[in-house]
Amino acid sequence: xxxxxxxxxxxxxxxxxxxxxxxxxxxxxxxxxxxxxxxxxxxxxxxxxxxxxxxxxxxxxxxxxxxxxxxxxxxxxxxxxxxxxxxxxxxxxxxxxxxxxxxxxxxxxxxxxxxxxxxxxxxxxxxxxxxxxxxxxxxxxxxxxxxxxxxxxxxxxxxxxxxxxxxxxxxxxxxxxxxxxxxxxxxxxxxxxxxxxxxxxxxxxxxxxxxxxxxxxxxxxxxxxxxxxxxxxxxxxxxxxxxxxxxxxxxxxxxxxxxxxxxxxxxxxxxxxxxxxxxxxxxxxxxxxxxxxxxxxxxxxxxxxxxxxx
Amino acid sequence: xxxxxxxxxxxxxxxxxxxxxxxxxxxxxxxxxxxxxxxxxxxxxxxxxxxxxxxxxxxxxxxxxxxxxxxxxxxxxxxxxxxxxxxxxxxxxxxxxxxxxxxxxxxxxxxxxxxxxxxxxxxxxxxxxxxxxxxxxxxxxxxxxxxxxxxxxxxxxxxxxxxxxxxxxxxxxxxxxxxxxxxxxxxxxxxxxxxxxxxxxxxxxxxxxxxxxxxxxxxxxxxxxxxxxxxxxxxxxxxxxxxxxxxxxxxxxxxxxxxxxxxxxxxxxxxxxxxxxxxxxxxxxxxxxxxxxxxxxxxxxxxxxxxxxx
Amino acid sequence: xxxxxxxxxxxxxxxxxxxxxxxxxxxxxxxxxxxxxxxxxxxxxxxxxxxxxxxxxxxxxxxxxxxxxxxxxxxxxxxxxxxxxxxxxxxxxxxxxxxxxxxxxxxxxxxxxxxxxxxxxxxxxxxxxxxxxxxxxxxxxxxxxxxxxxxxxxxxxxxxxxxxxxxxxxxxxxxxxxxxxxxxxxxxxxxxxxxxxxxxxxxxxxxxxxxxxxxxxxxxxxxxxxxxxxxxxxxxxxxxxxxxxxxxxxxxxxxxxxxxxxxxxxxxxxxxxxxxxxxxxxxxxxxxxxxxxxxxxxxxxxxxxxxxxx
Lengths: 310, 310, 310
Description:
Three copies of one chain form a homotrimer.
Chain A: H1 16-34, E1 47-52, H2 57-69, E2 73-78, H3 90-98, E3 104-109, H4 114-120, E4 125-131, H5 137-151, E5 158-162, H6 169-180, E6 184-188, E7 204-206, H7 209-213, E8 218-221, H8 227-230, H9 237-244, H10 248-251, E9 259-261, H11 274-277, H12 284-302, H13 305-309
Parallel strand pairs in A: 1-2, 1-3, 3-4, 5-6, 5-8, 6-7, 8-9
């Protein structure tokens, strides 16, 4: 099954059927990753460009390895070494890169809307690897895939997302995806880190973490970016942790088999206790492996587009 | 047909026959690039090192992808991470890198003469990817190839090169190449950005852009480096643009089918209007694609040398 | 023959038999490197991550090329672009990277002990590519291999190591390796750059270079890090060179066929005269080539572990 839209800019570019198909392919990819020979060269002769305007070890490496395991040629272009430092417009960068004949361009960029500019100016398929505080669709896919693997499906699950909702592209993409697959989502943050339109998203909104995690099937903890504190978003790390750190006591309020997730990198003792991060309910490390599997699935399903269509 | 000289430091290292052969191979490479399987592994088992002492997304990525499409192992070494920060001499760096057994070393370096030092100290073949304000032979090759594709040949064409001639390695290489293939070249710049020996190059020199572009078959616009302004090379960007920006009015003075070229990245509204850059006479994007094809051609013709000769 | 221990953190992780086997495989790898087709894809389908927390052109490039010639997928992660800038602990970085399913992780890190943390938290095999002033096992292996190639064996040779012993991980690893293969080692440095426990290492200690190099079969010169001077470790570069530079006069005190070695990059005229570095007794360039061969040998012997064992 092919993916219908040329680009994956937002999770809403995918149908629920396409998401399920990505999961089916990702399950095959997990056996490839775990096997003796990880070379699965379905993208031999195809090329992938990783265009990163922001640092990201996890996401960049995950896409790079995904492309290489699939046999594609992968080229990294980072902002610091790119023509952006010469003042070139994104549109011109897009047109230039497209002429190097990539099949897929994966971009991380700090500005919402940058991916649309890229997508409109290239023949290559574009995958959004994170755009400001807007969308991070492959993170949501790997979160949904992880929950599906562990729980069978998301239908009817209570999922709490806790932390800096306001600045989190992970939260935005997760909300869309979790709801599309039938989950009930609760958002929890201090008032200063909760978007004003949160209630319009079809989710439950609370500022009380005990309420958020009560009877939850899944808890997704978000990373606190410590630089937010300087901006006065919360009074102190200690106070934040007192109210919003996932501790043993709070986790005990959730269902006994509640999954604990985090997109990483984690701040131990701030948004999550080290014991829980390393504990039996945590699937944080597995999220990384599933991220690789989901990206291999996506690339294998999208990497052949350009020539098939043109 | 092999390339006789070990190294490509300056365009004058190539004979006209060799240049024409590079173009013939580049045409084949364009069909590879446009095809379903871009892997054309004639350099399997060979290796290429990209040694960049200056940032360059376009040129570095173009060579990297060229090497990878040809099946070579490509390794990037950038100045910031190299031993130059430890004060090692270029000669010692050269000897070290050569012992990693590369077949081709591609170097960009700010100093004229650096490539000679490298070439004399390595068994690998050296390709100059830009050296200060001196030479940029692969840019000239792609420019000549682009004109040849569009016009059949350069014989008797009037080609205007406009902008910061003084600091442009593109201009230096283009002048040699365009004249070698029979074109008449006109150089146009403000007096402060025109080299004093320009008239000795066998070209027409003018400070009047209208005169330069009149009846031109090809106009090559050069990038204005805005940092030059600080050095007092021109009074203001606005004044520069008033006299030397390629506008619709000025382009109308050229032949109706005049090609518009630019090595990129462009400053829209400074040296070229956005409409012209995106217009039907512009071949700026195609230059990027042709750059990839020319570099694949060069690498495929030079990459087997070391073992064939030694 | 497999290598018994999972990780190569210190040279003492290897038995003498394993070291000799590495040399035997390295000799085969030298013919691969010198041959027409350097692709020797015994690691096809395996992957290698280069995790560098400190710059190192030589070592990083050497491992990268070694992995690529062997057909592995190689991914570079440098500290500046990694999550360390986000404050992630090394343990969490380790667990994350391991989930990308690498077979081997090669790490350079400034802290002694960092490699143990990494090794304990990953299924991948870990190779230490340099840790602070502690160990650099592959440098010692390539030094030992180079001497073995030239002298047949190290048994009974007099080897002088001269320079900044105190801060040198090369010296620490070399001492262990040279002694394990039967050589007599003399360490020579200014008193401020000699570790206080040097005499306990089973070596001869001297502050007089003439004494150190007298009748030597091999002289290993170490790099002076010029920033040490600021710390008051030696009075001036000129004075250091007067007492500890390897000059023609000093080299004449050694055996006539004495080898001159240096891990690079060299400071000409400070720790070694340019004439000697380029002279017939110098094997400095060959050390680089042998480093590639030894790393290919190691990777080929360690790259298959994960799947064979698990």
